[in-house]
Specification:
single chain, 62% helix
């Protein structure tokens, strides 16, 4: 989705299912996996789990995970997911 496509984002937030599009479904699955990893890594610190995405990280050459995803697209999502999986021991 385009960053400017707020209408679609609002529909999804309100419960409309994602289109049956493999690319969108893979992206959504990876983003949910990132969310799950953060909640498992920071079970007692929900605010830290959510803040992690917007904090610079040496593993991403000083970029925040959000910046990495913005620059790299799906590859950035996979990089963040893989990093978190490794942090969890997977």
């Amino acid at each position: 989705l385009s960053k400017d496509n707020r209408g679609a984002l609002t529909k999804y937030r309100n419960g409309q299912p994602l289109a049956n599009d493999r690319d969108k479904l893979e992206r959504a699955a990876s983003i949910l996996a990132i969310h799950k990893s953060l909640r498992l890594l920071f079970p007692q610190h929900k605010s830290l789990a959510y803040a992690w995405m917007s904090r610079p990280n040496r593993a991403f050459e000083g970029l925040t995970p959000v910046e990495l995803i913005d620059q790299q697209g799906i590859m950035g999502i996979y990089m963040v997911r893989t990093y978190l999986d490794r942090q969890r021991g997977h």
